[in-house]
């Protein structure tokens, strides 16, 4: 579940060019939100050629995921969710989210993004635009499910992840992942069946 | 849905005694968490007689709700949830939560408490203990539903409230409450049926 793809061939730019692009991306995403940020604008902020940005990051979604150190990018996670039987998508989604959030290293950047969004209007806009346009609407439209139903499913998993890892409610915090798959899978399946 | 009950009769203490008790309560709840805080300890912090604390606040739950300016107290909200047909409890819960969170005046203190819990370990402990012991376990035990299922229901509504009012995801943010009752009610009902 790597967040970036490197093209083969020569590597232009200094050793830290990638890091400079990511720093510029964080600044531009925070200021403009996800929708209005452009590869061109990020290149300008980083003082590099747009082609160099494209060399490191094929898409804006991938760049956002890398800039926020997210454990997964929409381009890798959406196909994982969509492949396999439609009647098992609820189970697949719950299992995927529990796997991504299980270890502190992959969970912490996600929680950091949520914390910012909870306390800062700019961060909330950035997270909202990314979640809806790059993630939820993509899945909903490919499965022909109304956006509201996907957001109900998101709400279920968002609340469970916060309850399990941030509030640490028991018995939720120490529940076995498979027990949660059994409990939550049918809820998500029902929303996706709409 | 008043959070406190005044006993009839004379009102001892200065005009701001109630406010002083609440300030002491906020300090003690933050330091000790909800479980370990006591009426006696709060009275000591406020430098008043414990009987005076009881005069203003009949229970620790009511005092917590008043101290955090919560729009509802467990003593008022749990009976509202439990009265009425068991097969409509999902619908009743969704409607109740959407009503309590609908106006900014009643929603903001709740969101403030969640924000603190998201960013501060002490506040997270306080919120966790209050939510589980004063709210979720009470409802679960009275309905003989496993604690994990109540927490799944909590997760659904917690995530929806944050998605609707903090992240402001569309179409969730402007969805009609009755549409949400129809969408989320069966999910909550299923957890409560367990």
TrEMBL record, chains A, B:
Residues 15-75 form the HTH tetR-type domain. InterPro entries: Homeodomain-like_sf, HTH-type_TetR-like_transc_reg, HTH_TetR, Tet_transcr_reg_TetR-rel_C_sf, TetR_C_16. It holds the Pfam family TetR_C_16. One of its GO terms (molecular function) is transcription cis-regulatory region binding. Keywords: DNA-binding. Residues 38-57 bind DNA. The keyword DNA-binding applies. It comes from the Bacteria. This is TetR family transcriptional regulator. It comes from Nonomuraea polychroma.
């Amino acid at each position: 579940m790597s967040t970036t793809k490197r093209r083969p061939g020569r590597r232009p730019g200094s050793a830290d060019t990638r890091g400079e692009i990511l720093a510029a991306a964080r600044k531009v995403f925070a200021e403009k939100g996800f929708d209005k940020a452009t590869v061109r604008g990020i290149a300008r902020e980083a003082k590099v050629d747009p082609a160099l940005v494209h060399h490191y990051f094929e898409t804006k979604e991938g760049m956002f995921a890398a800039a926020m150190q997210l454990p997964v990018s929409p381009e890798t996670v959406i196909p994982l969710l969509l492949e396999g039987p439609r009647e098992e998508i609820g189970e697949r989604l719950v299992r995927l989210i529990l796997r991504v959030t299980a270890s502190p290293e992959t969970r912490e950047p996600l929680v950091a993004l949520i914390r910012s969004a909870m306390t800062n209007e700019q961060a909330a806009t950035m997270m909202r635009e990314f979640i809806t346009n790059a993630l939820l609407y993509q899945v909903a439209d490919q499965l022909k499910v109304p956006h509201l139903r996907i957001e109900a499913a998101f709400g279920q998993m968002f609340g469970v992840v916060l309850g399990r890892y941030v509030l640490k409610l028991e018995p939720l915090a120490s529940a076995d992942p498979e027990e949660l798959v059994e409990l939550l899978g049918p809820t998500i399946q029902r929303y996706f069946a709409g």
